[in-house]
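As the next step, I selected for study one protein, both as residues and as discrete backbone shape codes, as given directly below:
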Amino acid sequence: MSHQDDLFKVIQKKHKDTVFEALGISIEAYDPEVVISLQVDHRHLQHAGIVHGGVYVLLAESAASIAGAFKVDLHNYDIFGMEINANHLKPTLPGQKIFAKSKLIHQGRSTMIYGVDITNEVGGLVSISRCTLAVRKK
């Protein structure tokens, strides 16, 4: 079993009783890029009946943070979101599944930057984000 597989199991355990469990977020892939998914239901909607923009941002930061965790020794470093921006391009309705896929843009000693595309189940782009992560020695 690889280091990434071990880390994946640790991350999966930590998702119990978090927003991942509450909103039904799943990790679909983690090598080499992280992909997380969400089956849209009433918990994810704003008043107009479409996915709330904050859900897209939550997915983007989550995908980036998990990807960043695979790049550092978590025994010696903490990693967390520092800044995020997003553009929502297309509405998503209940019953649809969406996917957030992270892509490393920059890896430095104290920061990482990820681009995250959120797509629907037919591959249509619904939101794009850029997330800066802080990397801090414990």
